[in-house]
Design a protein that fits this description.
By secondary structure, the protein is α+β, with helices and mostly antiparallel strands. Helices cover about 65% and strands about 15% of the residues. The protein has one domain: Winged helix-like DNA-binding domain superfamily/Winged helix DNA-binding domain (Arc Repressor Mutant, subunit A, Orthogonal Bundle). Strands 1-3-2 form a 3-stranded antiparallel β-sheet.
Length: about 130
């Protein structure tokens, strides 16, 4: 059974990070796009559309759509594999590296905050529900 407090802390870090991404100027990435981005930047390459689809267990067209969006923001780019022209390689970019650096900073700041334990949230919600109705 997972440590509830640790899980609550991780969810709090995720929430604060996502809220920070939503509030900032710059790309607004979907969960799938962020998943593709993080996979490209945090795991060893080379990365291909086929390989990303297999690793993330989604279709190749879904990866292609995510990469289209990442390409619009210059967070990743595609290049034909010179060894196998049927294969497309996914490459990192300077803008993508900067976003990853910002994400790391945001997550480090969020980790420094104390996440509200789920038990306390549930208790406060129950108390509010009793008062209201």
């Amino acid at each position: 059974m997972p440590d509830t407090q640790q899980a609550d802390r991780m969810v709090g870090v995720l929430r604060d990070t996502v809220v920070s991404l939503v509030r900032r100027d710059g790309p607004d990435l979907s969960a799938r796009q962020l998943g593709v981005f993080l996979t490209v930047y945090l795991s060893e390459g080379p990365h291909t559309v086929r390989g990303l689809a297999a690793e993330l267990n989604v279709s190749k067209p879904a990866i292609t759509r995510a990469l289209d969006r990442l390409g619009e923001f210059d967070l990743a780019r595609r290049k034909l594999d010179p060894m196998d022209r049927r294969s497309v390689l996914v490459q990192r970019t300077v803008n993508g590296a900067a976003l990853l650096r910002d994400l790391r900073q945001t997550m480090a700041e969020a980790e420094g905050k104390v996440a509200l334990p789920v038990d306390r949230v549930v208790a406060e919600f129950a108390e509010e529900a009793r008062r209201v109705g």
